[in-house]
Every structure is written in C-alpha cells, then in structure tokens.
Design brief:
single chain; 220 residues; alpha/beta; 8 helices
Length: 220
C-alpha cells in the first residue's frame, strides 16, 4: 500500500514520521520502500547518514514513483512540488497527515483535504484519510492537544488516531544521527509514543462484535 505522508502547512515533521515508521516496520521484519519527492530531500539526507554508519536494518530512498508498487511504501512529499504531490495522492491507498496542535494547522489540514479531493476525483477507491497530532505539547496543563484533537475529529471522512508524538528532543536528535527513537533511546517516552502510534496505524481493524440475539420469551 502507498501511504502519502503530508500536509499543506510546512514544519509538521513528516520526514521524521516517515523515517521512524519505516524503521519500526523494518525491525519487525517488514521492509518498506521510501520515496522522497520533496525538493528539500530531508529524508534522503538522514538515510544517507544511516548508510554511512552502516546501521541495520538499512533503508533505501527513491526519488520517482514507478508505474507499479507492491508491498508497503511511504511517500514524503510537500506542497512545494504540487505536481508530484497530486500524482502521489492519486495513487495512494492511505494519506497520513501529521498535524501540529494549533488552530492554524487545523485550518491548513482542512485546505489540504480539498487538494486530496481534487487529486483523487477520478479515483474509484478513495484513499483512507488519517490524522494524528505531531509535535504535541508536553506541558501537563496545556489544552492545545485536546482542542486540536477535538477539532480534527470534526473533519468529515478523517480517522483521527488517539496516540500522538510529542515535541521531544529524542525525535530531533535521533533523526540527525540516522536512528529512529527506539534505536537511540529504547524505552524512552518518545519510543513508547512511536510504538503506540505505529500499532494504531498498522494493526488490523477489529471487527465489531455481533450483538447477542434477544432470547424469545416462552409462551405459556
């Protein structure tokens, strides 16, 4: 399945998300193909660091979508390359939207949904739309996370994941060193958050339990 990771607003941390999710799957024996279509090439840079350090599992990044893709694939693309973005969206089975907890980011996500709708207008099987809070506030008294989650939950057709990734130094540091957070600091808060998010994203959907049949009353 092709998963496009993106949003209209920059600075949502999409490259970090792609990198960490890919390695989460890789450590579980599920290889992932990566496609960096963003002119900034941030994902490409950190994968090169990983290659230089010879970390395993290794990752490989392509810069053009082939005509056919099998298996799990992540596409990192921004709005600075709108043609590539719309092409990727038209082929996606899933669109994952990291959203920073602010009203401006929620508004940008609403506008991004319009871009997705336009890009997939001729697509019979529409991609699943998924959002989650990234770079969430870690202050215990902050209300921004809950308010942003509630606002995202009002968006029609979007599944909002409860697990979130907080604004933690482990995400920034690990990315610059070519490591995912669970490799840099196993058992850390960042690692626990990544695990919860990945499980929510990749776990098979549970079938709703069948309601028990009402017992027939015996007639005398």
């Amino acid at each position: 399945m092709i998963t496009v990771v993106g949003n209209l607003k920059g600075g949502t941390g999409k490259s970090t998300v792609v990198f960490n999710l890919a390695l989460w799957l890789g450590h579980k024996g599920n290889p992932v193909r990566l496609f960096d279509l963003d002119p900034q090439a941030t994902l490409t840079d950190t994968v090169e660091v990983r290659h230089e350090e010879a970390y395993e599992p290794s990752l490989h990044v392509d810069h053009q979508l082939p005509s056919r893709i099998t298996g799990e694939a992540f596409v990192d693309v921004g709005t600075s390359n709108m043609d590539a973005l719309k092409d990727a969206l038209s082929r996606a089975g899933r669109v994952l939207m990291p959203v920073t907890p602010s009203q401006a980011d929620v508004w940008s996500t609403q506008r991004f949904l319009s871009i997705i709708e336009e890009a997939t207008a001729r697509k019979k099987n529409k991609p699943e739309l998924i959002a989650f809070l990234n770079r969430a506030d870690t202050h215990p008294l902050s209300r921004e996370n809950d308010e942003a989650f509630e606002a995202l939950s009002q968006l029609e057709g979007v599944r909002v994941l409860r697990p979130m990734l907080s604004y933690r130094i482990d995400f920034r540091r690990s990315f610059s060193e070519g490591l995912c957070v669970s490799e840099l600091n196993p058992g850390s808060k960042a690692s626990v958050e990544l695990d919860a998010l990945a499980k929510a994203l990749f776990a098979p959907a549970k079938k709703p339990k069948a309601k028990p049949k009402a017992k027939k009353k015996k007639t005398k």
